[in-house]
Amino acid sequence: MVVYVEGVGMTKIDRHYDFSLKDLAAKAAFNAIDQAGGTDGIDYLIFSSSLASLQDSQLDSASYLALSLGLKGVRALNVEAGEASGLAAISVAKSLLESHQADKVLVVGAEKLNEFVSSKVYKQLQMLYDGDTKSFYNIGFAGEAALLMRLYMDTYNVDRETMSYWPALMHSNAKENPYAMLNFAIKPDKVAKSQILADPITLLDSYPLGDGAAAVILSNKDVAKSPIAKISAIESSTGYGSIELSDDPLQFDSLSDAYRRISNIADVSNIDFIEIHDSFTITAMIILETLGLANRGKAAELVSTGYFSPGGKGPAANLSGGLKARGHPLGATGVYQIVESSLQVSGKFPGIKLSNAKKGLVVSLNGLGSSAYVALVEEV
Amino acid sequence: MSMDLSISRFWRKKEIIYKLNGAKCKSCGKVHYPPKNACPYCGSRDLEYIELPRKGKLISYTTIYAIPEGARSQSPIYFGLIDLGITKITAELTDITDPSILKKDMEVEATLRKTQEDRDAGLIYYVLKFRPVLVQK
Amino acid sequence: MVNPKAGIHGWGAYIPIYRLPLSDIAKVWGWHPDQYKGLAVEEKAIAGSDEDALTMGYEAAYNAIQRAKIEPKKIGAIFFGTESKPYAVKPSATIIGEALGITPYTMASDLEFACRAASEGMRSLIGMAASGLIDYGLAIGSDTAQANPGDVLEFTAASGAAAFVIGKTNNAVAIIEDSVTFVTDTPDFWRRSSQPYPLHGEGFTGEPAYFYHIENAVKTLLERTGLKPSDFDYAIFHQPNGKFPVKVGQDLGFNMDQMKDGLVTPMIGNTYNASALMGLARVLDKAKAGQKILLAPFGSGAGSDAYLITVTDEVENRKHLAPMVDDYLNRKILINYATYARSRSIIHVIK
Q1: Could you report the per-residue pLDDT of C163-201, keeping only the tens digit for each?
Q2: CATH level 3 topology of B7-20+53-132
Q3: Chain C contacts in chain B segment 84-113 (CB below 8 A)
Q4: pTM of the model
Q5: Which among C115, C120, C154, C213 is annotated as catalytic?
Q6: Domain residue extents for chain B
Q7: Is any Cβ of chain B less than 8 angstroms from the Cβ of A280?
Q8: Which residue of B65, B67, B90 is in closest CB contact with A244?
Q9: Considering its fold, how many domains does chain A have in total?
Q10: DSSP string, C173-214
Q11: In this predicted complex, what is the ipTM?
Q12: Residue C250 pLDDT more than 80?
């Protein structure tokens, strides 16, 4: 079943020291609500945030957010799926709409990653990875992805320079996006020269720690008045999420499952653009290959040829600038991706616009694929 | 006076983190570490606990400079994906000062080391890390 | 007097990989460049930032159990001798016992007697094993030796560990034929509660402490056993530096040939509770069946033990079951004073 996007809102991703989590959430939510014609008929508030309990010291944050938004009395719940929280929240909203437990749902994703010093945030972000193994070590947020990146480069004999085209493409896209945190261009050769976080991952291979919020109003067909886009399908799966458990860590098993599932219920061919979860350069490469958009070991090279660039032969990748350059406020990211894709298919995206974009595929993951979500966003 | 780290979380896992106790699935035969409640490969709950080999070979490795809270005294952190033959694990690597010695297929062995300390007055936590093998056979 | 006998079933050592040249200490603290030459030590072994007396003791004990070829559960007592225990209150012995698979049916405690606590553990285990109270016991000496930065003691205070599995005499690699302990109240070296570093009486640590106690313990042992220095193949003394053990040995009538294999401090500094015991481990790495060893650990405060140990032919079957002391001696990374200060927490940081 299809659900409709009636209103969207987002804040620029930044170090918003002057705004609280609720302030940011309100900015995005009020935009979405106003665009959709007001608060009337909103049955549910789904709030997506990964670290709200730690960064905002708040539990039951959806209910307190409802109060703060002037929506007291609405049904509200939190959805947390690590970095995939945003699409998980959209998925829950869609289920509520499909089952007619709700006809109109406000989904808000908000995250602050700058309430504490970076070493504490690295420790919080380490929670994205399997605590069974990783919590006894001090690997921070980039350690496990670094193992994957080296394994990828060794296995497929891909050099550092080729990998660097992805961050450069992301910055080039983000440059045009007023909501992006890092809206400046970089040359590929700058990536390898930037600060090393976890060798071979550099600062420019990784996402910035940003604060931000995004919101959408989703409705059923009979309720939607002037939708800007529709979400035709959304699917998900769970996976190993750990490099050591998987026999084939160079593919994300959860994403492979989710993609197979969505292919069974929707036509995901002839996609005009993709918004994928490029938390690191390596995650982008593996997503592209898991989706079959690039042959194994060839994604980086394909990126370097301009295949995924705006106007390239393949689907345009991350016109927003991606997690890499738009930014990655964890629980809000999936909602950003839906907002940006909805604006893209309605010709209203404030950054790089594709002419005649009809279909976009949104991919979100947690960590190295403990969960994976895929959504199909189409023009109305 | 407060503590940041959970006492019981480490304590209940001590067999696993001190002795490298993994689980072997009696149904599909695959080994994983640390033990989950059911086999991650076939879902069987029929698991037996086994001590994993203490020596293995590096498959991948990294030197981590983005250090999480509490670990600054051990910076940089070396971390590896290790092939133990019957299974793979990830673990911190130690006794390394020059990251350029890290190589694929390098032989490493387990040794008990400190991993986290709960500030100045709290508990000290120990875990098996891996270092380059002492005696090349 | 009854003379219970026990056997050494396994031995193991551990030396951390890092070495600090003493010249670096002299430079940092403004000592005359030749100040430390009389100590006959050039480098000292330093534990890494993720090591402490417990982790080092664990590895030495792991090696000892490998050589003993026994199930860890057969060990009925763990004595952990150290003066640098990670916890003032909370036994390190239980953590080591757990990590080695010895717990829960075992005695376990941390012993303190400056540098001879582990030796006290060995003497206790002799009686416990001989009486049948336990099948096997584990004595561990391990220290990340502390010294007040800038004090002359800093030249030699080093890190290392040694461990022994003690049991009955049958199937042992060496028999502890006899042993003597000699202690008095002699305040040569101490560390008060809650103080990070020990102080000492300089020259007072020599004649009235080190020499007096070791000489009395060894002479008593010789009298009891009717042996003379020339009857021994090896003589090992506590080694606060490279000079004292040679002098005490010569004063007692031993020669360098008997002492050289057991002298480890000249290469890595004084590992406190592991000092003489590391010497014993290195001697067992090399010893042959029938050879006789004199071992005399010393601890400030003060006391000394003297042991008569005879090697059996079983020793050859065990040597290669764990790394030898020389394997650890040969593995080294040179560090500077700054790295040493960081890894030994001499630099104060807010956690």
Answers
A1: 999 999 999 999 999 999 999 999 999 999 989 999 999
A2: OB fold (Dihydrolipoamide Acetyltransferase, E2P) (2.40.50)
A3: 94-95, 97, 111-113
A4: 0.96
A5: C115
A6: 7-20+53-132
A7: no
A8: B90
A9: 1
A10: SEEEEEEEEEEEEE-SEE--TT-SS-EE-GGGGIIIIIIHHH
A11: 0.97
A12: yes
